[in-house]
Specification:
219 residues, six-stranded parallel sheet, 11 helices, 6 strands, alpha/beta, single chain
């Protein structure tokens, strides 16, 4: 991506929200808003037509809602990273979106700097969970999950080394690579290497899925 702008599609059925997000994003010279959509079907087409790097996808939209659009979008534009736009009242929908390969989520009242940071992180291949909501959402979503799921998660985590489990546990708390490194006395680069290894061993697409798995396993 070096030297090339990050190509973003904004999908939300509210014009004012799209306009606000667009104004924030275009303030960064490294980000280009290449398309907008007011429904899920249009979002899929826009992501494909514009070869989007990142799609900001609202859950509640007409024609095709965000959850239904997500698998179609990932097939139509496999190189696009999808960040879900949400509110606290949509936690269960967020869980379903993350489990189906969403790269993370942002609250709609996210600060401008955080919005830009999330787009940059997603474009770089990292999942992004709003720091203000990570622990709250993951803990709430983890409650009441089926015993069979927890057992399956523990079985998968058992394949990790002790140090890998330590790193995974901090992913489950929503810590960044830098903060994880400080906790475990590692360099940020070393943590990044551990995270890549953990994702491969657990067959997780991104940090979000690994964090949910950590919670299922009781880490």
């Amino acid at each position: 991506m070096a030297g090339q702008p990050i190509r973003v599609v904004i999908a939300d059925d509210e014009p004012l929200i799209r306009a606000g997000i667009r104004m924030i994003l275009i303030s960064d010279p490294d980000i280009q808003v290449v398309g907008e959509a007011a429904d899920g079907r249009a979002a899929v087409e826009a992501a494909r037509a514009h070869a989007a790097d990142v799609v900001l996808l609202d859950i509640q939209m007409p024609v095709l809602d965000g959850l239904s659009a997500l698998p179609e979008l990932r097939r139509a534009a496999p190189g696009a990273r999808v960040i879900i736009l949400t509110t606290f009242g949509e936690r269960e929908n967020v869980l379903r979106a993350l489990e189906h390969g969403g790269a993370g989520f942002l609250l709609k009242d996210t600060a401008p700097a955080e919005l830009i940071g999330a787009v940059r992180a997603a474009a770089a291949g990292d999942a992004y969970l709003s720091p203000a909501a990570t622990r709250h959402v993951v803990e709430r979503l983890a409650k009441g999950r089926e015993a069979a799921r927890a057992e399956e998660a523990r079985g998968r985590v058992a394949a990790l080394s002790e140090k890998e489990r330590d790193v995974l546990a901090l992913l489950g708390e929503g810590l960044s690579n830098a903060d994880t490194g400080k906790r475990l006395h590692m360099s940020e680069g070393t943590v990044k290497t551990y995270v890549s290894r953990i994702l491969a061993k657990l067959d997780c697409e991104n940090r979000v899925q690994a964090a949910l798995l950590a919670r299922d396993a009781g880490l």
